[in-house]
Write a structure and sequence with these properties.
The complex is a heterodimer of chains A (about 260) and B (about 325). Chain A is mainly α and about 260 residues long. Helices cover about 75% and strands about 0% of the residues of chain A. Chain A has a single domain, classed as MetI-like (MetI-like fold), CATH 1.10.3720.10. In chain A, α1 crosses α12, α3 packs antiparallel against α4 and α9 packs antiparallel against α12. Chain B has 2 domains: about 70 residues, no CATH class; about 220 residues, MetI-like (MetI-like fold, Orthogonal Bundle), CATH 1.10.3720.10. Classes of the chains: A mainly alpha (about 260), B mainly alpha (about 325).
């Protein structure tokens, strides 16, 4: 039986991205349109996923929220991965004191509970979308750095690298064109898992009121109302959480599928 | 063994120093001076008081001296006073530890009680029906935000069924209860938080146990044990499990930062007076001394956890030393 996890995961993410891209066309209402005559309406034909305590349409808010959640996931992980690749390949290639210094820094950073560090920094700067992307990116480069370093350590003694050296290729040429492309596999799997983790972090931050700020909607900040409407409006709790879960499930399936397919 | 412990302790010193440097410079990231923030919160602070505060915080001295002073103070466990109520930061943290500690210890017991048998059973028949079902559970367990799970369960057990209290650690009339009612009351309040905080760990550790057990079951000494005619349960529980369980020790040490970070969210949802919700309050109040003390202590605790895990691992498995 062929492994279907890659296919299913990709399909879900493709659909979500499409919805996020076409948000203005497909969402039934403006995401921040307040309708005081329709507060806390349960799901119906006019509001498929119900409304919140300001009468805003949950489905529309979730479609626009997909834009925010997906882009925070992609950009923060892109930043973390680029940083990790740069730092990790320096450590792996040059070894010695540089490697020692960088790996100690990784050890130090890994000691900080990520959520503590991120919340502390958010407390000092305003929690804007850009800041959240930067903060998540700057506090999660250690995983990719470790992975790429380990790969490069084993690759750099191989014959094809020695051949490049003999041909007179510069260090930076060897790192960028020969080592990194050959070491990238596990880093990509890790990045896929990282997107899931970043979306989870963002939703947690937004749920605490320290992430994406209303009226901009994200899946996490729709859930802020879930606590005050506990027992009154199950739809506010159920649907955004389901969206987060399915998205993270999809990214994890893709990572799992990639790992099996290329045995990384 | 002693030389191994000393080696590990010496190796931890530069990491601990690095933790203090990063913690210190995160404070300095704060826009403006901590004293101006304190004035902003309390407009009655006069210029003279502000200058006195600057002296206390040593802000008139060069940066490296400030760092050395700060380092000197934290080695004496002096983290300053909280901006919000003026009490020593350490006292505020210490009084919150019992709740967080007991929830995490209970979760850990719950996780190990379930994850080990689940992992073993999955490993005995990899890709069998049980294993498939469990890997589905693991995938969903990893994907669900814990705060969402908490909200769903509060909705179900707290509101719809009304079986369990929604938040807090004890009922209002707790003091008047007899001993057994006190225990019952506390456990009713703890059921949901402990369950919710266990899910991610349960998913992770049962997977880890599975692969560790599969590895152990393929070792030559298992073939020997089977060839000797030992029963299946003796082979599995006596020979394989004892070896497979070792790496779990390390994983427990590594999961500490995640547990601490996660406590911020679920302690705030369930309104539990632990260090996670204290951190959340500190962030909302911009209480910098408290924030920094918790960031530093969280990292130092993680370092200690990793160290203990490594030493514990070396103690049960002499091959590591």
């Amino acid at each position: 039986m062929r492994d279907k996890s890659l296919l299913i995961g990709t399909l879900i993410i493709a659909l979500l991205s499409l919805a996020a891209l076409l948000a203005p066309l497909i969402s039934p209402y403006q995401p921040s349109f307040i309708d005081m005559s329709g507060l806390l309406l349960p799901p119906s034909l006019t509001h498929p996923l119900g409304t919140d305590s300001l009468g805003r349409d949950i489905l529309s808010r979730m479609i626009y929220g997909a834009r925010i959640s997906l882009s925070i996931g992609l950009i923060s992980v892109g930043l973390a991965t680029l940083l990790g690749i740069a730092i990790g390949s320096l450590a792996g290639f040059y070894g010695g004191a540089i490697d020692n210094l960088i790996m100690r820094l990784v050890d130090i950073m890994l000691c900080f509970p990520a959520f503590f560090l991120i919340l502390a920094i958010v407390a000092m700067f305003e929690p804007s979308i850009l800041n959240i992307m930067l903060i998540i990116g700057l506090t999660s480069w250690m995983g990719p750095a470790r992975l790429i370093r380990a790969e490069i350590l084993s690759l750099k003694e191989r014959e094809f690298i020695q051949a490049e050296r003999a041909l007179g290729a510069s260090n930076s040429r060897i790192i960028i064109f020969h080592l990194i492309p050959n070491a990238i596999g596990p880093v990509l799997v890790n990045a896929t898992l990282g997107i899931a983790a970043a979306i989870l972090l963002e939703s947690g931050l937004s749920f605490l009121g320290l992430g994406v700020q209303p009226p901009v909607s994200s899946w996490g900040n729709i859930l802020i109302e879930a606590k005050s409407t506990l027992g009154l409006a199950w739809w506010i709790t159920l649907f955004p959480g389901l969206a987060i879960t399915v998205t993270i499930l999809a990214f994890n399936l893709i990572a799992d599928g990639l790992r099996k397919k290329f045995s990384w | 063994m002693l030389s191994y412990i000393i080696r590990r302790l010496l190796g931890a010193i530069p990491v601990l120093l690095g933790i203090t440097i990063i913690s210190f410079f995160v404070i300095r990231l704060a826009p403006g001076r901590p004293t101006s923030l304190q004035q902003a919160l309390n407009p009655k602070v006069s210029l003279e008081t502000a200058q006195r505060l600057e002296k206390i915080y040593g802000l008139d001295k060069p940066l490296y001296l400030q760092y050395v002073n700060w380092l000197g103070r934290i080695t004496r466990l002096d983290f300053g006073r909280s901006f919000s109520d003026g009490r020593p930061v350490l006292d505020r943290i210490l009084e919150r530890i019992p709740v967080t500690l007991s929830i995490n210890v209970l979760s850990l017991i719950f996780i190990l009680m379930l994850a080990i048998p689940i992992g073993v059973r999955s490993a005995l028949r990899p890709d069998g029906l049980f294993d498939k079902g469990m890997s589905l559970f693991v995938f969903i367990g990893f994907a669900m935000p814990t705060f969402w799970l908490a909200l769903l369960l509060m909705n179900l057990f707290g509101v719809s069924l009304g079986w369990l209290p929604l938040s807090g650690i004890k009922s209002l009339d707790f003091e008047y209860f007899g001993f057994f009612r006190k225990v019952l009351d506390l456990s009713r309040h703890l059921v949901l938080p402990v369950f919710v905080s266990s899910i991610t760990g349960l998913a992770g550790i049962s997977r880890y146990m599975r692969s560790s057990m599969i590895g152990a079951l393929n070792e030559p000494y298992i073939y020997t044990a089977r060839a000797k005619g030992l029963s299946q349960s003796r082979v599995v529980y006596k020979h394989a499990l004892r070896n497979a369980i070792l790496p779990i020790v390390t994983i427990l040490g590594l999961s500490l930062p995640g547990l601490l970070g996660g406590s911020v969210i679920f302690e705030s949802i369930f309104a539990l007076p632990g260090i996670g919700s204290l951190f959340y309050e500190a962030v909302m109040m911009r209480d910098y001394p408290l924030i920094m003390a918790e960031v530093f202590l969280g990292a130092a605790l993680t370092l200690l956890g990793n160290l203990l895990a490594d030493i514990g691992y070396a103690w049960v498995d002499p091959r590591i030393r």
